[in-house]
Amino acid sequence: MGVDLGGTKTEVVILDSAQAVLQRERFATPAQDYDAILSRIAAEFERARSRYGREITLGIGIPGAISPRTGLLRNSNTACLNGRAFRSDLEQRTGCEVRVENDANCLALSEALGGAARGYRVVFAVIVGTGTGGGLVVDGRLLGGPHAIAGEWGHNPLPWRRDDELACDCYCGKQGCIETFLSGPGLARNFEARFGKSLDSIEIVEAAAGGDADCRAMLDSYYDQMARALAHVINIVDPDAIVLGGGMSNIDPIYREVPRRLGDYVFSDFAETPLLKAARGDSSGVFGAALLWA
């Protein structure tokens, strides 16, 4: 059983050993009520055990991460989870071991084991949506690291930043983070700062497709910013494939425009890293949560 615990919705999936879907459900997350979140997940798990047997496993993808030092959840945009012993509290409710990972790590695992990057040895996967997050899988295993932050590219500074690219404040307390440029809200904020017009990211993409010159110029800058950000990862990790998920990954020209710019920034005489769209779409994270037990 995998659970993707989002800020507005929670998705549950039950897979068999061949990753075939046995059951799937979505419901609104009671985002302001910590106890209600635990109770709903525990109830779903108990129903699954009644139907499929007590050997069923439970994996959960969360925004944020659990501190290896304190065991408390941190950096979640579902604020009621922060500072809570989420994993141990849920283990008490369910009476079994629970595996919990960052949602971007779950995306990476899902796409490496059964999605767009299946068959690649080293996979870097990123969620680009309301925020940015990343995960790294090597030989089918997640890299976590002693701080549980492996792959968190979004809170590094945008590389080779240009004079007209303003370093906005990030919620993490720093300025000029990749997230402030590549997230949907970041694109909208930078568009307004540059052109004095208020459009959200979807409107910018639609207007660019319709020929709006300002929106097309903004997206051209966006593609270059993503190429620079991914080139930094390639220069350090040199993954066999990169997978994009999240709402911004649905901008189809990304997969043409970003790869052709990578060669300007990658420290090599060629740049051929495949840039792939998540095959499992916005459900990829919940597959990865279930596959924490694979």
What this model shows, in words?
- The strands form three sheets. The chain has a five-stranded mixed β-sheet with strand order 3-2-1-4-7, sandwiched between helices. The protein has a five-stranded mixed β-sheet with strand order 10-9-8-11-12, covered by helices on one side.
- The longest helix has 25 residues.
- The protein has ten helices and twelve strands.
- By secondary structure, it is of the alpha/beta class.
- The model has no long low-confidence stretch (mean pLDDT 94).
- Helix 6 packs across helix 7.
- Helix content is 36%, strand content 19%.
- It has two domains: 115 residues, Nucleotidyltransferase, domain 5, CATH 3.30.420; 159 residues, ATPase, nucleotide binding domain (Nucleotidyltransferase, domain 5), CATH 3.30.420.40.
